[in-house]
Amino acid sequence: MRMKHGPLRLIATLFAAGALVLAGSVVPASAAGGPNLASGKTATVSGVSDVYGAGNLNDGNAGTYWESTNNAFPQWAQIDLGAATSIDQVVLKLPPATAWATRTQTLSVLTGTTSPPATTTVASAGYAFNPATGNTVTINFTATSARYVRINVTGNTGWPAAQISEFEVYGASGPVDTVAPSAPSNLAYTQPASGQIRLTWSASTDNVGVTGYDVYANGALRGSVGAGVLTYTDTQPGTATVAYYVRAKDAAGNVSGNSNTVTRTGTPGGDTQNPSAPSNLAYTQPASGQIRLAWGASTDNVGVTGYDVYANNALRGSVGAGVLTYTDTQPDSAT
């Protein structure tokens, strides 16, 4: 048994803890809503000391524990819940034996639907693990949807490493969002310049709210945009044939089905010739607040795929190759 559990260290850490004012919401352990969601899930850590590995974090045995690499703060431990889940409580334990002196570990809780989780759900604070209360700390927070739950440890008054025997996660008592957004619709593309493919689509809907869109090219994720963005411009060589589809996602990690697929067919040798500029642009005002544009068709060595309409140098909208009109809405006072 290491000296870190010995009686001399017990006296020192009890004295230090007596003068410490702790932050955070620490209450007696209780399941916030059902079973321990971390049980049987994948645990990963930043580092390991000796035989005190990540598997001890959620093996259901408070007598075993994880210990990080010594003298190398910060250190972290993470649970992968397998899918986005509504959670509102983390319970941390050390072995309950009185040989484990009272110690304070300084840590924060991070959550998210991707790894590493980016949201600091509970800010860094000191938490006292006391054998008199089972060496257990419970951290409550506002319910959030997360797949990955991480504690980031920056200090330990009892030993120069992070130490946790059980890392438990509990779900919020409220309902979990399991409804996926609708699939994006009306996916189309234009080629505003050589090597550029500009995608546009219609917005998805969701019972809670769409948080963004993922764009796929030939089955591989190509990029992502936020909820309010309905365009994406890709760069591909003119010889490449590329098939695109788009998926919507929400905060709970639910993902929609695929949009319709559009395919840009490459041309041998690559198309490097721009279309001619549209001609004879003119406008009428069919009603108050409406401006109807009309123009003459462009020509191209391969084929025009569409037109982009700009107002005061900002993209206003796009139409397909066979459409030579666009109606904009502007206040009558606007130039």
What can you tell me about this protein's structure?
By secondary structure, this protein is mainly β. β12 and β13 (220-226) form a beta hairpin. The protein contains one helix and 21 strands. The strands form six sheets. Strands 1, 2, 4, 5, 6, 7 and 9 form a seven-stranded antiparallel β-sheet that branches. The chain has a four-stranded antiparallel β-sheet with strand order 13-12-15-16, with no helix packed on it. Strands 10-11-14 form a three-stranded antiparallel β-sheet, with no helix packed on it. It has one helix spanning 7-18, and strands at residues 26-27, 42-45, 66-67, 75-93, 103-112, 119-129, 136-156, 163-164, 166-171, 185-190, 196-202, 210-217, 220-226, 231-235, 242-250, 262-264, 279-284, 290-296, 306-311, 314-320, 325-329. Mean pLDDT is 87; it is low at 1-31. It comes from Streptosporangium subroseum.
